[in-house]
Amino acid sequence: MRDALLATVIDEHATVEAFASLLAYEEKALAAVSPLEMLPAIIEKKNELTGQLASLEKARDAQLRELGFPPGWKGMELAAANDERLAGHWKLLQAVVQRARRANTNNGLMIRVRMNYNQSALAILRGAANKASVYGPDGRMAGV
């Protein structure tokens, strides 16, 4: 059973690595002038990887319970305490999770900045449109 838990942790590590790589690609897309061409495929892949991670976490928790450990981080810490291979892979998983978390936070900030910029630009354009409406659709001055 410990071998199954180890295999699950290794699979989780690989999946989080893929997710972190995708976040790096997303960061490049968000920095591009026109990210809309790349973002739908990125979002679709992120959703797929998130689903895989949820399944792997569920499997890991079930394996921990079968070994007599509590689920989650606490159970993994206890299981890894007596297994050097498991401890090494658990440490690798934790490191890549932290890297992915930082990248995701950074991308969220980039999205927020872009949204604020777009909202400011729209406000300026709306203000200019309201001021520019001196002439009506018929080409005559409004109110005359």
UniProtKB/TrEMBL annotation:
Pfam family, one: FlgN
InterPro entries membership: FlgN-like, FlgN-like_sf
Keywords from the UniProt entry: Bacterial flagellum biogenesis, Cell projection, Cilium, Flagellum
Protein's UniProt keywords contain Transit peptide: no
Record GO biological process: bacterial-type flagellum assembly
Assigned protein family: Belongs to the FlgN family.
Role summary: Required for the efficient initiation of filament assembly.
Name listed for the protein in its UniProt record: Flagellar protein FlgN
Species for this entry: Trinickia terrae
Lineage: Bacteria, Pseudomonadati, Pseudomonadota, Betaproteobacteria, Burkholderiales
